[in-house]
Amino acid sequence: MCRRPCRGRRHGTAPLSAVGCRCRLWAVRSRRALSVALVTVRLMLDAEDVRRIALSLPDTTEKVAWNMPTFRVAGKMFATVPEDETSIAVRCPKEERDELALAEPRKFWIADHEAGFAWVRVRLVALEDEAELRDILADSWRQAAPPRLIDAHPELGLPAAD
């Protein structure tokens, strides 16, 4: 007997032995749909991902400042994780920063207190994947790193053109 919602009653006109209970077919379809949905779900990046990637960059240290983690290369700050841990602040030239904020406002924005500085905020939930986060952090790292470090690590050079 079927233990699904039909409670043993057959659906349709075909005998149970010929096609099986549609409840069983529905359950199989539901499991397939669920597995497809789970495959397409994107994991949200978080502060631990930022920390792991930032500290993997050469000569990077973490220091708490203003009650939040900051990441520095050769003593210069290149990224911070604000208290809410849903975004990061990274170095970005003002001209590019303004263009980014206008082109992708769901991903980038300029905090009021950072408007006079070359920093931009990035919403972690809006990032496509870990590779995009790594590119953003590496770009910010390049802006703060001394030339000797940039020369010693050419793999962290400019991202490949699409």
TrEMBL record:
Coiled-coil stretches noted in the UniProt entry, renumbered to this chain: none
Leader sequence segment: none
Protein name, per record: MmcQ/YjbR family DNA-binding protein
